[in-house]
């Protein structure tokens, strides 16, 4: 299996190379050269398997010869051993034909753990074999950072630096990043918003001298291995609800478009997905793009679902690449316009392609709060604000016989203020994290400045 860049100019890489490098050298994102398909019989045969067994079958063709079957099985086993639910990604029914896919039973209580725990084990295995050392730098709106730190803390061949927007993550998110004591992890509070964090990260990757000197590796949702890990739960959920014999719909609370793009890959592999619904909060660039055809940034308004407070949705580039018939030059042109003019118009053909697969909707702050309250009243389940955005948008979709699955992307205890404001009750942290508020914090403030960041990383990393 080979991987090509969405901008058509970077070297073609193997799975292992694409995983270790993250962002392509032409500024693009890696995607598989061809998407392998799973025939209906193979999909049906996933029924009754453990999550790990299903994960092996779904992901195996993408990994090529990077790992043997036995190695890959062991990696998957270690990745999900720390989850708090035997099913890993269980379903809960919240209405007639409407289900929640609970993706918050991992160690940092958000769906990011599915990808990050796997990628931690994949990196460890690959680096041990090669004796290489890498510097992982990630940008986070909150959940990626804690998941990355949890996955890489204490690993011997890796230094991890996480940039988060100062004052714009929840206290639980911040503490999950600042309390691990291992000296290979570094939480950096950047003076700016999440888009600034993401922009500085991209700058670092495009500064080849620095990139090569520190062995820069990316684990943001632009990393193909993360998208791949997320493909699995679309299969397990759909099969539980009758796929491949019955089509299923998914609504996905979306920011960087990584999670929902994994759903698109599942569909391309042959899973009968009737619709993938993009759910945004008030930062609704993706909803506006899909409905109006213009992808235009207009600044971020902080919301109660902060992990979706974003204007530049990195993984959307992967969808554009498909929508433009895999024309890297066309994608590069649009990304150039985005950088120089703050936006671009999606061609009519590309827009029609996207609307075949994707629908979209947005939830305001008030609607999000109302949905947390109403879901609790109707079902007794407490949902996080990101999940609530999804539940609201899912409820707005046209009726269909296909079951609707809304991805529950975080545990409510990660966003206690928003939940308490809606329901009156503060959701407790799970036992494993009960002392989070008592642990000492370690964090370095940093200016929104590339040179300052690079200097700090160079000084702190181990050699
Ligand atoms: C990251 C995150 C999202 C958005 O996921 P993308 O893959 O960036 O679209 C939604 N909800 C929560 C809780 C998250 O942590």
Can you put this structure into words, describing what you see?
This protein is of the alpha/beta class and 463 residues long. The protein has a domain at 91-107 and 227-423: Rossmann fold (3-Layer(aba) Sandwich), CATH 3.40.50.1100. The protein is built from 19 helices and 16 strands. It has helices spanning 15-21, 40-44, 51-63, 69-80, 112-130, 143-152, 171-178, 194-206, 208-214, 224-240, 258-269, 285-292, 316-323, 328-341, 348-357, 365-379, 385-395, 416-423, 450-460; strands spanning 2-5, 13-14, 30-32, 91-95, 98-102, 134-139, 158-165, 185-190, 216-217, 248-253, 273-280, 294-296, 343-345, 358-362, 404-408, 444-446. The strands form 4 sheets. It has a 6-stranded mixed sheet, sandwiched between helices. It has a 5-stranded parallel sheet with strand order 9-6-7-8-16, with helices on both faces. The chain has a 3-stranded antiparallel sheet with strand order 2-1-3, covered by helices on one side. Helix 6 (143-152) links the parallel strand 6 and strand 7. Helix 13 packs across helix 15, helix 16 crosses helix 17 and helix 16 crosses helix 18 (416-423). It starts with a strand and ends with a helix. The model has no long low-confidence stretch (mean pLDDT 95). The structure holds pyridoxal-5'-phosphate (PLP). Pyridoxal-5'-phosphate binds next to helix 11. It catalyses: O-phospho-L-homoserine + H2O = L-threonine + phosphate. Its EC number is 4.2.3.1.
For the structure shown, list the relevant keywords.
globular; six-stranded mixed sheet; 19 helices; alpha/beta; five-stranded parallel sheet; 463 residues; Rossmann fold; binds pyridoxal-5'-phosphate
